[in-house]
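hiii so um. not sure if this is the right channel but i have a protein structure encoded as tokens and i wanna go backwards to a sequence. like what aa goes where. can anyone help
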């Protein structure tokens, strides 16, 4: 199953709703998606995700809260949580306490990222957690994040400045895609995740020629 397409679509859905374009899926030991979540911090109405309309309505938290009871023949330690952006301190703590032992993330969060908590204290070193960064997911998230430049809230806590220092090339791509009306198509719902990924990959390929 193409988890990246699923996650990017969740990012796009969040973008369309006025929230940060961050998405997350949880996959069981058989490779099936059993839970999804997206950022919903700027939404006042319930749209399928249990946590919304406040600063803790993060993608990972929504995916974790939406999980059903673990079947007797499954081990949650075999589950994998895929998230488009590095989990914050709150979300990494929730992931750690959930029993999930595998984290795959995309874009680094230079302000609120919480993966550096792992191993810092005795408690956060007891469980073995496998942490992997997915470069394709990183690229897609960083380009989507570049569309946020006109949002007032993005400047809080130095998030936007840190993003620009870490992902200047992806921001330039986002600006060009905005000029090419890709951003407008995402907001209008006339472009899906698969199409967006293809456009970004083609754009990057053309730049490298």
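sure thing!! here u go:
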């Amino acid at each position: 199953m193409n988890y990246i397409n699923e996650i990017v679509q969740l990012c796009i859905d969040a973008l369309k709703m006025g929230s940060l374009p961050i998405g997350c899926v949880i996959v069981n030991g058989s490779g099936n998606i059993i839970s999804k979540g997206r950022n919903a911090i700027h939404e006042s109405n319930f749209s399928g995700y249990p946590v919304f309309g406040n600063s803790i309505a993060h993608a990972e938290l929504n995916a974790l809260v939406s999980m059903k009871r673990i079947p007797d023949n499954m081990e949650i330690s075999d589950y994998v949580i895929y998230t488009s952006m590095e989990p914050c301190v709150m979300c990494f703590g929730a992931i750690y306490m959930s029993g999930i032992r595998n984290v795959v993330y995309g874009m680094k969060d230079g302000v609120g990222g919480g993966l550096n908590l792992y191993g810092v204290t005795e408690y956060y070193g007891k469980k073995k957690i496998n942490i992997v960064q997915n470069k394709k997911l990183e690229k897609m998230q960083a380009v989507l994040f570049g569309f946020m430049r006109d949002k007032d809230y993005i400047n809080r806590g130095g998030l936007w400045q840190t993003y620009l220092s870490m992902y200047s090339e992806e921001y330039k791509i986002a600006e060009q895609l905005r000029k090419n009306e890709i951003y407008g198509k995402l907001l209008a719902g006339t472009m899906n995740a698969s199409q967006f990924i293809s456009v970004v990959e083609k754009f990057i390929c053309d730049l490298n020629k």
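oh and The two ends are 30 Å apart (CA to CA).
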